[in-house]
Amino acid sequence: MKRLKLFLMLLVLIFPLFLLGCWDQDQLKQARLVYTIALDQASGGQLLGSFVVRNTTSHTQQIETNNTIYYAKGRSMREMSQAVSASLNGRLRVFKFRVLLLSEKLARTQDLYPLLDSFYREPKSPLNAKVGIVKGEANEVVQHQKIGTTLIGEYLDQLIEGEEKLSVISPQDIQSICPLMFDPGEDFSLPYFEVKGNEVEVVGAAMMRGQRMVGSLSRVESKLLQMMRGKNDGTALVSLAIPMTNVHSAVNRVSFEIMKSSPEIELRVRRNHLDVYYKLGLKINVKEYPPANLDSPKEVSKLNRYIEKILKDRCKHLFAKMQKHQFDGLGIGRQIIAYHNDEWKHMNYKEVYTHANFYPTIHVESKGNGIIY
Predict the structure, then answer these.
(1) What residues does the Spore germination GerAC-like C-terminal domain cover (predicted)?
(2) pLDDT tens string 10-34
């Protein structure tokens, strides 16, 4: 028994000598962190990558941070990353990577997946990083080292997060768009940026059909699309012009918050014909209404009917625009695959979708009209 205990004690003491320890450690203090990458189209079929790398310096009790932009050309993301890494002694890392920007020209002419392939294959890649499209050249955005007092990487990340909370754009990241790029029955949208003087703004959404951009939506249209998809409960504030008979004001505005949106889609599918019956139920909370006569149930009902009419017309125009670009933002094709699979197998869906009939029905119910009513 004593010999067994002695053997076990020796084994416990000797075994740690054969352990490898942290063989794969990658110390953060030795890394050069890239926060943002902007991709543009260069000559000869090459890409121009602008890598925003963070610099941190300490002076006595203060730590200062700033950015350095490194430019590289190549035919793939990996090739450009290696070129930048060579100038940084191979220490370029993506631990803190937040935003990938693509120029509109690049997004319209080249597939998206090959540009993201290296992120999906690298175990340490932050797949929750955002992807955005820039009107014009993408490197124009990162050349703004700071917006106000915020470094450009953090600014873009916070800007996208804020617009997602306001339901202006759809919440997407590198991981979530991967299956959508190959989904024949549903398309997706990405933030659409524009440089305006010293500011960078989200001016709407880029419509992505498969792996390429096919058009853009304004902020109003993009918010309406989120509403139609039922993705903006309690976050979207909508403002509409309401025609009134008041002699003092030809046009009044109503602003309301969407408390709950309940979309329903019913399809009638034949081989080369598609009817889309779309129903949207909205429960709203009126935030601003200058006529201030919502103590009357009759006036509340009248206001609801006005809102229904305006939203119905806007839904028709938005669906027609999506049809024009063969952009299935509502995932109608996905429902055909699930519930009408035989018809799906024998149809040219994009052609059928372009000529589909769209019949929207909107029902609005005001659940809150302010504290004085």
Answers:
(1) 204-365
(2) 777 777 666 666 655 556 566 778 8
